[in-house]
Amino acid sequence: MWIFLAGFVVLVCAADATPVLGRTFPDFGKMYHVKGVLSLPHSKIEEPFEAWYDLDGNRSRIDYRNSTVRTFQIGNDLDFGAIYKITPVIPPSVIRCFQLKGTKDDPIEPQQAIPDAQSFEFEKMEDCKDAQCEVWKKVTEAGHKKNTYRLWVTRGEAAYSPATPHRFEMEGFNSLLGSHNDKYSIEYSDFCTQSEPDVFTPPAGFTCEEFPDPPEEHQILANPFQDYVNTHPVSHAHRMFGPFKEKFNRQYESEKEHEERENLFLHTFRFVHSNNRAGLTYSVGINHFADKTKEELARMTGGLLPKKEEDAK
């Protein structure tokens, strides 16, 4: 299937929503609670999370780093739903609430912590976590980017029982650069198909305000998990590269350099937002160094990089 989006020609290699080789697509139910760890190998980050999902109630919640940051996606709030983010800010003793309102064209919906497998195709059976796992695969392409997604699940004994997720992995290949330049994974645990209703209620006592500038980052600040389980090759983080180039007047000499710089920016962008969910005594942001290599940064600063800038690469 071909999709035309924002200047990209996107090929989505996916199966129809019908059983494959006698196997039905993994279904995780309309309600669940799950824990996990998001791993970003490039930045050497492992970020724990906990998620609750309730489709019929039109609501979800995802907590990061042992509930240091809590996000609530409530589709029935206000006119078109709202996202609430409860997070520490500098100084770290201050907890604040930020709000993102849905619109008629972009209403807020509950956010899954597990990818929708309806467009995946069965690949193979494989040992995982002392069990036989089904491995489901999806490949997407846009421009020079080719992403391969894999999802490892087990099934209950009863027919049509919800699947249990164990691992989700994305590996990106850039044909222009000739390299596997992107990868992340999610390890799941403690999956169950029930959830207490009171976990979806944002805590009282806060006056929620709009997210701070820049406005183009509001969506990923409010709902960072969306980018990781969405299987479209052009993520919100990728789309942020355009505003970055405009802000810092970036002009690259070739298409190859553009791809290289975008990849550097992508990893820096992920690091910045994951780091800021850790509740540390400092925060980091996107600046004019975001598309530079470690070697370039060392030359620009005489090898005396500030600790945070060095870690950001």
Automatic annotation (TrEMBL):
Keywords (A to Z) from UniProt: Signal
Residues in the signal sequence: 1-17
Gene3D superfamilies attached to this UniProt entry: 1.10.287.2250
SMART domains, A to Z: Inhibitor_I29
Pfam assignment, any one: Inhibitor_I29
Residue stretches making up the Cathepsin propeptide inhibitor domain: 241-297
Stated name of the protein: Zgc:123103
